[in-house]
TrEMBL record:
Source organism (scientific name): Ferruginivarius sediminum
Claim: Hydrolase is one of the keywords in the record: yes
Catalytic activity: an N-acyl-L-alpha-aminoacyl-tRNA + H2O = an N-acyl-L-amino acid + a tRNA + H(+)
Underlying gene: pth
One of the protein's GO biological processes: protein quality control for misfolded or incompletely synthesized proteins
EC number, as in UniProt: 3.1.1.29
Site (Stabilizes the basic form of H active site to accept a proton): D91
InterPro entries in the record: Pept_tRNA_hydro (IPR001328), Pept_tRNA_hydro_CS (IPR018171), Pept_tRNA_hydro_sf (IPR036416)
Annotated protein name in UniProt: Peptidyl-tRNA hydrolase
Compartment list: Cytoplasm
Length: 194
């Protein structure tokens, strides 16, 4: 079993924030992989099912970003999962908008959701880093992540989340290189072949 965690803040007020791209991507995974209905468990909204051949519990912690680890740790302990069986989807300021990278372990780069998970689980979990770009000044970061994606930004946010949702079976099967390649391929601008 794998735990698929999308990071974000609960409620309509935050739904379209840049910080919530993890929730957005997880919604697409649940939709495209036909996971079960969302319900409440582990202080989260959760949906269960298969992604490829792997049984997964998709979870959106309702503990707010800064305390995400409380919910993730609780679920991981309940199912006796190692950190390597946890995949966290989150926003990343250090990646260009629309870019995606996968890595196992590492630092939290000041991301409070990752810091919280580190504290409750250790840092050897998988991270799906979803690029949202940087505002250019570190003093603007807080407002940047807690503001909504613009209409223009949604032209790459929606396809990125759809590609992650469609290709997630490659990552749950353990092929992170193929997952990254296929998502990158899907994100390429369409070419005129006439």
């Amino acid at each position: 079993m794998l735990l698929l965690v999308g990071l974000g803040n609960p409620g309509a007020r935050y739904a379209r924030n840049r910080h919530n791209i993890g929730f957005m991507a997880l919604d697409e995974i649940a939709r495209r992989q036909n996971l079960g209905a969302w319900r409440s468990r582990f202080r989260s909204d959760v949906a269960e099912g298969l992604v490829g051949t792997e049984k997964v519990l998709a979870m959106k912690p309702l503990t707010y970003m800064n305390n995400s680890g409380e919910a993730v740790g609780e679920a991981a302990r309940f199912f006796k999962l190692s950190p390597e069986q946890v995949i966290v989807l989150h926003d990343d300021l250090d990646l260009a908008p629309g870019k995606m990278r996968v890595k196992k372990g590492g630092g939290n780069a000041g991301h409070n959701g990752l810091r919280s998970i580190d504290a409750h689980l250790g840092n050897a979990f998988w991270r799906v880093r979803l690029g949202i770009g940087h505002p250019g000044n570190k003093n603007l970061v807080h407002a940047w992540v807690l503001n909504d994606f613009s209409k223009e930004e949604m032209t790459w946010v929606t396809p990125l989340c759809e590609a992650v949702g469609e290709e997630m079976h490659r990552l749950t099967a353990g092929d992170h290189e193929a997952f990254m390649s296929r998502v990158a391929y899907r994100m390429q601008p369409t070419r005129d072949t006439s």
